[in-house]
Specification:
300 residues; alpha/beta; Glutaconate Coenzyme A-transferase; 2 domains; 8-stranded parallel β-sheet; 3-stranded antiparallel β-sheet; 6 helices; globular
Amino acid sequence: MGRRPIPQQGDTPQPSPLSLWDRKPYEFASTSPPPDRQAGERIASVPVACIMGDVGVMPAKFDWEPIPMKNKVYTDFDSAVADMKDGMTFMSPGFGNVGLARNLLAAVHRLGVKELTGISNNAGSLDERVDVGTLIEAGQVKKMICAFTAPTHPSQITPFVQMYNDGELDAELVPQGTLAERMRAAAAGIGAFYTPASVGTELAEGKEHREINGRTYVLEYPLPADFALIRAYRADTFGNLQFRLTQRNFNPIMAMAADVTVVEVEDSIVEPGDIDPDCVHVPGVYVDRIVKIPEDGIWD
């Protein structure tokens, strides 16, 4: 099949091949249909690929069945994280105890995997609620990457602080904005970026520095994870997510930065299209598994 000739000045305008049909991708649209087809004959109930040629538009394939959509809905939290392995990196969102996937963290705790690296805004609290500190206290975490490594008051000694002081785990302190941007870079496929945050402090030691427009910046790299444990208000079966108020915090960024994104959902899991597109905060293409929080689940 040759390339269509480029129109020259003075040529009589020719109809586009697309004007030879009614522009429905599921109907045949060639001026020279194959022997077993008629012009305008319906060939499939879904769009098919087409090849542009001198003779018009020819479907690349006539008969096929659409591939069924992957089932992302899981019945329980344990099965949703069952393939997490020792040594993996996980992300846990939340800000001021809001938006934490406590049910999924509890499932990881029951699973018993160890040598984990955690990425979170902080390293857990002192109360009895399930959070990252639950995994730290159980000895399942070897390193934490977070924006707040110390509690809000020196008298509050969290399990993380105690174990860090005892040399039982490692920690990496990252400025909060840099933490968010490193995760966003992982989600967007950005290889690295420069930021002025941490210049002149211990956090910038050993990192590449560069002067841009008279200001010094340090080079930071993406921060991906194997698993992201997300909490959302509502989801559909394709994985589109909606959050409520402060619950959003780190949830959307983390949901897009992990190889496997697992979501616990507060409200009903609805059919695709039931969530207003303007209310979708994370597209379903980033989401792998969804679990509805049961009545006896962790709701706070």
